[in-house]
Structures are given as C-alpha cells and as structure tokens.
Specification:
Protein name (chains A, B): Enoyl reductase (ER) domain-containing protein
Cofactor (chains A, B): Zn(2+)
CATH superfamily of the largest domain in chain A: Medium-chain alcohol dehydrogenases, catalytic domain
Number of strands of chain A: 19
Distance between the termini of chain A: 16 Å
Structural class of chain A: alpha/beta
InterPro entries (chains A, B): ADH-like_C (IPR013149), ADH-like_N (IPR013154), ADH_Zn_CS (IPR002328), CAD-like (IPR047109), GroES-like_sf (IPR011032), NAD(P)-bd_dom_sf (IPR036291)
Oligomer: homodimer
Pfam families (chains A, B): ADH_N, ADH_zinc_N
Mean pLDDT of chain A: 95
CATH architecture of the largest domain in chain A: Alpha-Beta Complex
Domain Alcohol dehydrogenase-like N-terminal (chains A, B): 37-165
Shape of chain A: globular
Order of helices and strands of chain A: EEEHEEEEHEEEHHEHEHEHEHEEEHEHEH
Amino acid sequence: MSVTTVNYPEEFKGFAISDPSEWSNPKLTSYIPKNFGPKDVDIEIECCGVCASELAVLKNKWSSGPLKSLSSTYGPKTQCVGHEVIGKVVKMGPDVTEFKLGQRVGLGAQAFSCQECSRCKADNDQYCEKYVGTYNGVYDDGYISQGGYASHVRANECCIFPIPDSLESHIIAPLQCGGLTVYSPLKRGIKDVLAEGIKPVVGIIGIGGLGHMAIMIAKALGADVVAISRSTSKKEDAIKMGADGFIATGSTEPWEKENYDKFHLLLNCASSATDLPLDRLLRTLQVNRPFISVGLPDIREKFEVSPFTFLQSGSVIGSSKLGSKAEAIELLELAAKHQFKPWVETIPISEAGVSEALTRLNDGDVRYRFTLTGFHEFFGTGK
Amino acid sequence: MSVTTVNYPEEFKGFAISDPSEWSNPKLTSYIPKNFGPKDVDIEIECCGVCASELAVLKNKWSSGPLKSLSSTYGPKTQCVGHEVIGKVVKMGPDVTEFKLGQRVGLGAQAFSCQECSRCKADNDQYCEKYVGTYNGVYDDGYISQGGYASHVRANECCIFPIPDSLESHIIAPLQCGGLTVYSPLKRGIKDVLAEGIKPVVGIIGIGGLGHMAIMIAKALGADVVAISRSTSKKEDAIKMGADGFIATGSTEPWEKENYDKFHLLLNCASSATDLPLDRLLRTLQVNRPFISVGLPDIREKFEVSPFTFLQSGSVIGSSKLGSKAEAIELLELAAKHQFKPWVETIPISEAGVSEALTRLNDGDVRYRFTLTGFHEFFGTGK
C-alpha cells in the first residue's frame, strides 16, 4: 500500500500542522473523520482553492488561545485546512435529500448550520449561532473539523452546493469561500439601488484574492466598478478583470474630492484594517451607504473611528461573513451565465505543493488565487 | 431705553461667550446679523430649547482650533448658541415663498443648505456640502452664525419649518434639533421593516435629552421599544415615556444573551462612545442591522471596533446627522397626530437663566429637556 493510499471511509488523509510555527509545512497525515450524521455527505475531493484564512488559522492569528485542534475530544490533534472544495459525493447519510452519489459538488467555509433557527430559515445560515466552520470548527461532540487539503471531507448537506456543468472545477473552486464572501455583501449592498432602476457604483478596495473576484462579480451583478488600491501596480489587471475605473489611494491627487458622493457601496477586501485611509474613503460614499469589510485582520487589530467620521454622509461601516447557501447557488449560476473566471494558478497537491502555495500566498506572490489540483492522482482516488 | 431693548433689524441681542472657559456664563450682548439674503427669514424668538451640543460648542469640544467666532470677517467675535427655536416670521427676503409674516415657525441646528446639489434634491439637505449650522457655522462671506438664545435669528427659508397649530411652543421646541436628530435615523432605520409588514424592534441606548424623545418617536412610528441604560434608575420614567421593555447594561444578568438577535435598530443616544459595551450590544442586533449613534462625544474620542465584532450578525455601525427639512415637517405632523410630548422644564431667559440651564445640563440635572422661555418679556418683543 502506497503511503498516500487512503483507508476510506474509516480514515481520511490530508495535510496538517500540529504547531503554528510550522504553518508553511503541513505534513501528510491520516485521521478519522467526525462521526457520520444522518445529513452528512462525504466528498471525495478533486481540487481545493487556497484562501487567506488558511494562513490566519494555521498561524493561529484569529485566536487568543492555543491551536483549537489540541482540545479535540476525538479525531486528530492536528489541523488540516482548506475550504474551497470541489469534489464528488461518495457517501450520504440516510436523511440526505438534495444530492446523489457521484454528483459534483462544492463546499465552502461552513460545514454545519442548525437549519431550525430564524436565521437559517431566513437564508442567513452563515450567521447561525450553531455555525461550524469547515476546518478549525467545534462540533457539538467536541470534534474539531478538518478541511479540504485532503482526500475527503465530511459536511452537512445544508452547506454543500451543486455545481453547474459548464463550470471548470479548478477555476471555480475559489468561489466556494472567497467568491461567496464578496458576493453576499455585494448583492445585499446594492439590492435596493438596483430595485430603484439605478446602476449602482461600487468601489472594491484591495485587489487581491478576494478583490479580483469582487470586481468580476460586481460587474456581473450590473454595477459600475471602481478598483481601489494603494498604488497603480494592479491597474492594468483590474481593468482586464472588468473594472470601469481605478483609484490609487497612495497618490498625491485629491482622489477623495474627485470621487466625493460617488459610491453606493465600498467593499473592503484588504486584509488590514489599520492601513486604510478610512476618513478619506468614507467621503466617497453617498448618503447612508455602507463600507463593508470582508478581509479579516489579526484578531488584535481594530478599526478606530470617530462618530464624526461618519457624519459627512451618514455612512455606516461593518463586516460581512461568508454567504448563505442560497447565495452560493446564485453565485455559481451567475458564474455559469456570465462565464466570469477567477484568475487561478494551479499547483499539484503534495507536501511541497501545499508549502509552496501557503508561502507564496503569505508573500503576496499570487495573481490572484491558487487552486491545489491533482488530488485523484496523489491520493489514488477518483476511480 | 432699557438694557435689553433690541435695536432690530440692525442688531440682534443675545447671550454669548468670548472665552470657552466662561462657557456657563454667557453675557447679554448686541451684534449685527449676517447680511440679509433674498431667501433669508428673520425669526423673532418666543422660546428656545437647550441642546447638549451647546455645551460642546461653548466649551469648544468639537474643534481642534480656537473658538470659530474669533475668525469672523464681520459680525460679533463672540458666540451665541441655541438651535431649537420657536418664533414668528418678522422679515422675509424677496425670494421667500413658503412663509408669511407673523407665521409661527421652527428652526433647528441647520441654517443653510444649497438646495441645488443632488443631496439637497434627494431630501438629504442635512448632508449638503455647503451646510451652515445655526450657530458656530461659517457662511460663504465669513460671518460666523449666531444662535437662538437671542431676540432674533436669521436663517434661510430652506431650513425653517412651519409649526402645526395644536403644538405648544415650549413643549415642541426640543423637536427642532434633538427630536429631528433621532427621528431621521429611526425612520430610515426601520422603513424597510415596516414595508414588510413587520413590527420593528428598536433599542434606545441612553435615556437622556435625546433618548427620551427617541422612545416617544419610535413608538409613534409603530415600533416595539426597549430602553437601554446603565442602571435601572430611569426605568420607571422610560416606561412612562412608552418603552415596552428595559435593559440595564450594568447589571450582572446575561442581558445580551437574553436579547440575542432581537433588534432591527439600536439607536445610541448616549454622548460617550467609549463607555458603551459595544461588543455585547452588537450581539442583540438581527442580521445586517445597524447601530447608529446620534450622541456626539469629544472630537478626540473614538469607537474602537474589531471587524470581528460585526461578524456574528453582519451588523454595521455609523452616525446620523440631524434630519432633512422634509423629515422635520413629518416629525412635527407626527407629534400633532400622536400628541407625544417631550418632558420639558422651562427656565425664563436671562443671564442667570441661561447659566442655570447650561450648568444643570452639564451636571445631568435635567429630566429631560430644558426650554428657555419668556423671550418676549425679556427682550421687549412679541408686540
């Protein structure tokens, strides 16, 4: 038996760390999955996007305690990440109704919601109090969830999305988390404008993994899109992605005056909250419109804002978390209809491949998203 | 000629300071009004509410430079405050169309907007870039505006409101600024909920001058209202004002859990931003709902929020400024229809009266709003 052969369904194989200082070198490991529930689905993974949240969790930047997996009541004490999964259904619990064996599906950053609370019932399942993340999440029974840099992943069907046939797996893997994370606030943030028959004007701050998808998605939703970055280094790329305009906030131009009262929505896709010229940015919002952050910084980092900052236009600021399952399905249908494609560089999965992806992502050396591929070859699956 | 006799229309008389350290002792003074414009209206003042912003401006807390009136190009170098004016029209420019001589009118915190920009045209005149405040505001010609602790006040008709006959002047004076300041975010913040036929649930934080009017106004708008205060000392009052519930944030109860996912809107009427248990408060908001501040602190004070704080419910936070003229008229009609009445203590105007009002307001010794009255008697006007 080869070292990579998977003893499925008793065990999954994946790349995991046991020490945050080793964040860039996950090692191949075997582990038992969570106990199989009646609504659970096992996905045999074909490919998996690489999301910046992986860095934050592997480095333990979003926690003030030790690595969560160390407290697992059963299952591995190590942590495997990855939550932009495309694969096929290979096992279903008796209560699964939405899928069939062999179907191609996607899984994002959420693996469980209760489906019973008012939030779940109102298509706000990403804000369910019982939310469990696809990795580094705590199930009721104490199992710490394990992600998609792996042969298989187990999740509740309520968090799994059908994939339209016309979409290529490795290209749309990043939509499962990153794409959905920008789709939800974009859709919610301009819905009222579209309903009035007005073309929304949207500013996308930070042209990276999230921002580049946000440009495409905002365009597909019918907005005028302005890319906002510190320098002009990504201007050409942003225009290729579909941006109608570009603002370099580091320039000496009075850009906030030239763009006064312009935007219906500012979507902040930059990962740092403190580096932003927040006061100047808020001047570009129309009255009572929002600045929404999806890029999450270190847990100790803060926005510092004076109530006066908002006063010039009665603007608001906040954050948005992922998207609902309904929104994920809408997004995938939008991608199929508009055929927009995230700019993806593929890296075959292996210890070296995972390490390369994480290291280069950490260095900002990606234009604009990695997808780990070749899972079938590596794990001997896909047969 | 008595010391208080006014040489109108060449001069107004009012109570003004020339040094922020003397904030609690404005002195009777004469001054020339701004040059009379074609849309200007002179109001002979009957009474004037006392607003907490007076304290901030007299103490120069909302500025990082010296007292603004010192830089006036003409007119007084002293500052008279007051912007909850009720009085009658005694002079009108040739282009005034909305009013007639002798009509009872109100004036709030805004004395000028351009009426030409997209914001003015969309009933967002309070966010007009050319906004001039009723006092401490800078006109294009360099005159620093002078407020309503005075015999008369001059303002553009676009900022003046007709007063329904059934309302008593001294009772509804505080609606001109304070009432409007809470009405606008209340109305805007629950409009979508009402449109869906749902009864909005609104939390009013800080039961003082602004908060007590917010309770009444939110009730009149059709909301379920919960008063939120540090202790239970104002609970009985809040219930009398119409509150359906009460939360004491300083108590040891897990109030944020008991009120999880409850509010469509949190309106912060407390004047300090840093004292609030912001993280706990945001847990009580429903998904994607706002926390809006109308109480303005010292200009150096900040909200400190982590993007993570918002994540549990995708909430947003912001500030709201005054209200539009259209909203002021709606509010006065709402007051006439529902006959809600701010709790007002009257103090006859004089140097001693103004000093008492400011000092007691500064000490929090007011339940819940002062109106300065007796202007006609004091200034020998009203004939």
